[in-house]
Structure of ATP-binding protein:
Amino acid sequence: MDPIQNPYAPGAGQRPPELAGRDDQLRAFGIVLERVSRGRPERSLVLTGLRGVGKTVLLNALRSDAVRRGWGTGKLEARPDQGLRRPLSGALHQAVRELAPGGPESAHADSQQHVLGVLRSFAQRDAGAGAKLRDRWSPGIEAAPVRGRADSGDIEIDLVELLSDVGGLAAELDRGVAVFLDEMQDLGPDDVSALCAACHEISQAGLPLIVVGAGLPHLPAVLSASKSYSERLFSYQRIDRLGREAADLALTAPAAEEGAAYQPDALAAMYAATGGYPYFIQAYGKAVWDRAPRSPITAEDVAVAAPEAEEELAVGFFGSRYERATPGEREYLRAMGEVALQLSEDERDEIGSVPTADVAAFLGRKPQSLSPARDALLKKGLIYSGERGRIAFTVPHFGRYLRDQA
């Protein structure tokens, strides 16, 4: 089949041609936006799930919805080696510009300039007193810094003041602001605490500003460890793999746009291969399309193309993560994959976690001696702990990949 017409998009964070199985999340977010716009109380939102389930894609779709409704929006991605001030400043600068694009002649120009000045003070506080000009970073803001506002150096105090001012400007303009934060679990402890406190403050004040975060399955535990009230502060939505009907739609709808179709046994083979994970669906869909000689696509076409899809995933999806691990950490990962196979039906759970004691026993080591490797893998986002004493891969089918490599 013509590869130029191939409709599938297996890129990181790239929106698939058919965003199947996410209607409930899109509908719920539309209600949140409408309620906030009408001055109704509403919680910020947190999306959680494994790698490859489409959290970033959904985050971008929610942002697009907010933009269509006239909200000011900004997006950032948390990183373990970076504080919150600079990336958040850039995201909020964009949101404020979208919120009040009228320029110096607009009726709310003074309010906008004040907020931009506060934003600049917040951003530059990282530089410290006496910093050189090149270190006094600001996200392209021309407004003069507002001294004594969001520049105390205490991130919690500063973030509360900043978001209160941004939310106040949004209320003055009868608009809303939404900040979209990807990889939220990578925020540092102080930044997590500050963000929770700020969301709590703007919620109590009834300001039209929400935070939409996305992260790995242990993100709720990260937030709860920071502020006990975070369990009630955010609305948590678990993003999981697609059911059979939605997975079929993700394949058939784009194909139909190009005048192609799948035989029923081909769709069954695709679901068995992908497990319903959106990223895998796109990767297999692309490989099968390129290999299939004609429409309708058959189960035989899937079987022929599967090795190509698996090779692509082994390099780009699994391999890139495996390469980040040290030899000792890889040994731990492989042990997790083997232990998962040895668990009885009663010992298995829905996330595929394994007891840390069993991993240590498999390696013939004391659990304490494996703590450095386990902690390093947790920080690298390759594994997570859903409950005490158990760990799981953040990447679906990772155990199978490791066993195939062995």
